[in-house]
Structures are given as structure tokens and as C-alpha cells.
Amino acid sequence: MSKSMICSCEDVTADDVRHAVSRGYCDVESVKRYTGFGTGICQGKSCLSAVASLLEKEKALKADAVVPFTPRPPLFPTELSLLASAPVDESLPPIGGVPQEVDAFPQALRPEGPVPAKAKVVIIGGGVMGLALAYNLARSGETDVVVLERGYLCAGASGRNGGGVRMQWGTPALVELAKRSIDVMKGFAREMGINVWLRQGGYLFLARKPEVAKRLERNVALHNRYGVPTRLVTPDAARDIVPGLTMKGCVAASFNPEDGVIFPWPFLWGYAQGCRKKGVRVETYTEVTGFEVSGGQVRKVKTDRGDIACDTVVLASGAWSPQVAKLVGVDLPNEPHRHEILSTEPLKPFLGPLVSVLDSGLYFSQSMRGEIVGGMGDPKEPPGLNMGSTLRFVSRFAHALMEQLPQVGHVKVLRQWAGCYDVTPDNNPILGRTPGLDNLLQMSGFVGHGFMMAPAVAERMAAWMITGESDELFTRFNLRRFAEGALEREDMIIG
Ligand SMILES: Cc1cc2nc3c(=O)[nH]c(=O)nc-3n(C[C@H](O)[C@H](O)[C@H](O)COP(=O)(O)OP(=O)(O)OC[C@H]3O[C@@H](n4cnc5c(N)ncnc54)[C@H](O)[C@@H]3O)c2cc1C
């Protein structure tokens, strides 16, 4: 019985599901991610009901909490070449998308019992930022910390991203942060006891327009000054790095062999597990609904499971941060922008680096499981918290990918999804104290690169919070800069 196969696409047994439950991953979305069931060719058509009934039978979930995971298009595995033939009107903005993910999680998933009545630090958002910060606080001795997450771990951008990690940035601050983060990632499996599938195959940036090529050239010099071995490469040399790459329309490229890709989900679970081991409370399916403020301080955080009195509150709610900040009367300049992404069937290893055409925002890499994972920004995408998937995206992406790598036309897309970039006016984060509410700390606005910034930012933020020593990161990227017009522009943005 224990070896009964539940998901034959991904080799998931009944025992694998029980193991996920024993680790605290009891709801269907979390079990899907923890075991991989439903992520293969059948997309859950043959295994979802088996997992649901096992969860109910094992009493891992109340009957009304057993709800199916969000279905992902396409309905059937579909070749990139076919998808590329769907017509796209580039003059119109993308509309809608499926599924329109619900804005509220089922009440039955909410844990029973209240949240703790008091905590020194309350962190709002259980994405990579919130969890990494909580872990670093606990590691430095501050364990009276509660992380509040309205959904499951991985519900936000941290569970929806491309896993790209790179040191190729346009400003010293981001080069240094990314460099430190990649160092942390290299030791993560050892420290946290979880495999995060880091593969340093490099990042190959391609430039079409001369001004973009100039940007690469300028940044190579910056990277080298900070010990990052990026080099400019000719189109021919780029074809040697990625055999089969056409370099169509491209005039230059830059390559850093130390950049790479990571699997985002276990990275979050590693931090969450580390937090819990050290006594931090990570409360999923618990939504922040308001605040109690007096004397220029946040006194209490209100949730749908009761209030928490606190000394410090950290706003780490990603693309939802402006919405949460509004609850306490603070205006943030961040705007959510949908970004779509997809994954194909697995292939034998053939692609070393993550490749990105900087001009168009196309990017693609090969994961350790062998899938091509990639996305592309859409200049017509309007702001808004939309996480639906469109045929327009797969068509634009497939077209742009096949222009650079025509041999993948026969490869089938298995799954597409979307998440929101948390975009600030200068493409840099918002960190540090909130003017007028001193104990409300900001930790948002990481656009499309928060995953690779989180380990380093969280380390520095925990040290800054605990020691009280000044750190220029929290003045450089303070919310105040938008009112003062002291923007810190970053121009190595994909999409
Ligand atoms: C398609 C896509 C591709 C990307 N690719 C990359 C990449 O290759 N490399 C990279 O470094 N970055 C990438 N990013 C960006 C990266 O994913 C984000 O910058 C990062 O995950 C942000 O982490 P976060 O913790 O700030 O936000 P999130 O992960 O979004 O976490 C915020 C959490 O707050 C919770 N929340 C919201 N409101 C409330 C409330 N009221 N109460 C309680 N909880 C609440 C949400 O449910 C959410 O889980 C990509 C993003 C997308 C969408």
C-alpha cells in the first residue's frame, strides 16, 4: 500500500504524500508542490482525486478544505511551433487570462485557534523576503517572530518565478547583493538540509540595439571591478556557448559563468523549516486585515485569527504591499504587473546558461529536471494584480524563442502560469523605516529579481534590526527617496 503509485507522471507514491503531510504540507496546493504530483504530462487529471481522497482519509484536512489545485493551461501538452502560430495583435494590451485566481483562500484552510497575542516582530508575507528575514533574525537570537501568510508557502511571486540568479547588474549595490546571495545559495543545502538544485551554468545576455550593447559593455567593466568574471562575447562566441543559437538580430552579448538557476520552492521550504526549528511561528492561511496605531507607532497587527501586539512590523507582502500599506494609511509607489512564464516537457541537458534578449525581455533556461523554463515581458501589460495565463503570451514567447533556438519547435509546453512583478518607479526595492511610522519597516518592491536578492538583503536587514548599527542600504533604498526625487535607477531589468 505504501508504495502505491498516485502520480505516474512524476513517480509520486502514497507514502510521498504522507511524507509531505508529516512535514506540515497538508493542503492540495502545498502537497502538489512538495511532491510534484500533478506537474507532469497529465496535469493532475489522473492523480488529483487520489491525492484529495488520501488527504481526507488520513484526516490531514477537513473535508471542506479539500479543494483542487488551480488548473494550468494548456489543456494538453502542445508544441511550441503550434503555439507560435496563434495570431497576436501587438497594438492591443493583453486582456484577462485563465484561471482568474481567487482573491480569497477557502476559510476551511484557516488553522484553528488564535495567533499569538504578542510578538516582538511581526512579518507580513511568507514569501522569500519574509521567511529569509525571519530565519536570519532567529539565527541571530531573535526568535520572538511571527510570519503571517494569507495563503500557502509559494502562493506569491516567490513560488512563481524563473529561479534565475545573476550578478550581472547595472549598479554596485545590486552586484554586491547578488554576489552575496549566490554565495549563500551555494551553502544553502548544507546549512538547511534541503536540495535547492542550484546550477551555475551562467547567464548569457544578448543585445539587439547598439544602445543595449553599450549597456552590456559598461556593465562588464562594473562587474569586473567587483570581482565578477563577466565578459563581452561576440555573436560567434555566444553560439559556441549555446550551440544552435541563431543570434538573429543580435549584435553583442555578455556572459558570466557564475550566474545560474535555482529551484525556488525548496528554497522557501528550507527557510520556513529553519524558522520553525528555531521557534519562529510561520502562520499560513492567516491574513492581515488591519492595524492599530497610536503615537506614531503600530501597536497591533490585526488578522482574521485575532490581533498581535508587537514592537516591530515588517511589510514583506511583495506585489500586495501597496494594498497592505493602505490599511495603515501609507502610500507606496509600487505597482503590480503580471508576468507570464511556462515550462515544457523535460529534455536531456542541452542548454548551459540562462539566455536573455535584454531588448525584448525574452529569457529561457533549462532546469535540473530538464524542462525549458522561460518567459517574456509584455510592454502592453497594464498594472494590476492579475495572475491569469494567456494564449497571447505563449504565442509571443514561442515565436521569440524559436527565432533564437529553432530546433525546439517540436518541444511541448506542459504548463503555463503567471505571477506579479512588484515594480517601483526606479526598479529598486523599498527598504527601511517608514516616515511617520517608525516601527513599520518596508521590505518590498523587488520587481523581477527579489528571489536572488533575498538571502543577502535579509542577512543585512536582520543585522541592522538587531544591532541598531546603521547600514547605507536602508537609507539608499528608503521610501523617502521617491518624495525627495533621489531615485536609484537600475537598467538591467528583464521584461
Ligand atoms: C514570472 C516571474 C518570474 C520571476 N523571475 C525571477 C527570477 O528569475 N529571479 C529572481 O530573483 N526573481 C524573479 N522574480 C521576482 C521574484 O519572484 C520576487 O521578486 C520575489 O519572489 C518577491 O518575494 P516577496 O517575498 O517580496 O513576495 P511574494 O513572494 O509575493 O510574497 C509576498 C507574500 O505576501 C502574502 N500576502 C499578501 N497580502 C497579505 C496579507 N494581507 N496578509 C498576509 N500575507 C499576505 C502573499 O500571499 C505572498 O505570499 C520573478 C517574478 C515573477 C512573477
Largest sheet: 9 strands, mixed
Assembly category: single chain
Report the CATH superfamily of one domain. Answer: FAD/NAD(P)-binding domain
- Which band does the percent of strand residues land in? 15-25%
Q: Architecture of one domain in CATH?
A: 3-Layer(bba) Sandwich
Low-confidence stretches: none
- In whole angstroms, the N-to-C terminal distance is 48 Å
Number of helices: 14
Shape: globular
Please give the share of residues in helix: 25-40%
Write up what this structure looks like.
With 495 residues, the protein is of the alpha+beta class. Among the domains are: 5-69, Orthogonal Bundle (Arc Repressor Mutant, subunit A); 118-154 and 279-329 and 426-484, FAD/NAD(P)-binding domain. It is built from 14 helices and 21 strands. It has a nine-stranded mixed β-sheet with strand order 3-19-15-18-17-16-7-9-8, sandwiched between helices. Strands 4, 5, 11, 12, 13, 14, 20 and 21 form an eight-stranded mixed β-sheet that branches. A two-stranded antiparallel sheet has the order 1-2. A hairpin with a 4-residue loop joins strand 16 (354-357) and strand 17 (362-366). It is globular, with a radius of gyration of 22 Å. Bound molecules: flavin-adenine dinucleotide (FAD). The site of flavin-adenine dinucleotide has 41 residues, from helix 5, strand 15, strand 19 and helix 12.
